Structures are given as C-alpha cells and as structure tokens.
Amino acid sequence: MKAVTRRERREDDVAANQQPHPSSLHLEDQSMISTSHSIDSATLEWIPLRDGLFFRPLQFTEDGYSLQLRLEPGATITRHRHTGEVHAYNLFGKRELIETGEIVGPGTYVFEPAGNVDSWRCVGDEPCIVQISLKGRVEYLDADGVVTGIDDAFSTRDAYQKWCDVRGVIPNLALIPDHDSTSAFQARRREGRQ
Questions:
Q1: What is the pLDDT of residue 85?
Q2: H or E element: which one contains 9?
Q3: What is the CA radius of gyration of the chain?
Q4: Residue 76 CA, distance from chain mean position
Q5: d(Cα 153, Cα 156) in Å, to the nearest integer?
Q6: Is the dihedral of CA 98, 110, 137, 121 positive or negative?
Q7: DSSP 8-class letter at 114
Q8: Would you say the pTM of this structure is higher than 0.85?
C-alpha cells in the first residue's frame, strides 16, 4: 500500500470540493482553514419535535447548539431551566414570556442567563420563529421544580440524525464541526448521562 503525502491528500480534498483536512496542510498553509461557514436556513426543512413545534439545526458543538424554533399559534414551550446562557432573537411572529406577560415580537433579542427558569408560547395568528443559541442543557420542570426531561446538544443532534436516517439523507456536515469525532462525541454523551 502506497503512503499518501500531504500534498496528495490536499489535492484529493480540493478535487472532491472539500475543505482540506488540517493534517494535509503544511504549517504555513494552516491559515487556509476556514473557521466560518454560512448556512442558508431558508433552504433547510423544518424538523418536527411534537405537534406545533419544529426546528432547523444551525450548528452543534460539545457544549451547545444553535437552531431556529418554529411554534404554531398556541404552541407552548413548557417551564424549563437553562444551565447555560441563551441568546434568542425573534425573526417572525410573536411570543409571550409567560412568567412576565411580556410580548416579544420580530427584531427583539432576549438574553437568558444560566439558571433562568421560564416558559413561553406563540401568540397571534401566525407562527413564531426564534433563532436560539445556547450553552448547556434545557431542563424541563414539573410544578414542583423536579426535572422531567432534558434537551442538550447531544439530544438535539440525535433528533437531527434520526430525522436524516428516516428520510435517507446524509446529515449536513457544516452543522457539525466535529463530524470526524462522532464516536468520541457519542462516548462523551454516554459518560455524561451515566
């Protein structure tokens, strides 16, 4: 078996129209690695989570994720606590922050610090679309404050992967920057849940 040189590996990546693998680059070429990417979210399908609630994944990392949530009128995000910061920007429609009664509309940014407990619902006659970036977990709570379920980067990524599997499509690797370490990612998930 012939050894593949860095130059050959880089040429193979370029021929396949892929980002060059870091190991194929000489040290002086490392600056060629792009650390940013764009995703046209309007071309992504809405993935159903439950009646009236859908998401579009934008990026998954070990400690957080970014997505767009779409709620149909009347749909509610039940009482939950965040273990990390949340940045939410309303793109379309209106939502009510139930604990305060505040109505948040298009163009409004909401910051939620770690430990924040809230719930919200889509109000009005049109869907509400919110772009959300968060770190840590979302812990869903019952009336006594007991955690009844969680969502995190792992569970949301799993939901995306299952949706892709059912539809027979390959996941968009631009959403998963560490796609080469999928097994390590899953192992860390198992360790964190035991």
A1: 97
A2: helix 6-15
A3: 20
A4: 19
A5: 5
A6: positive
A7: T
A8: no
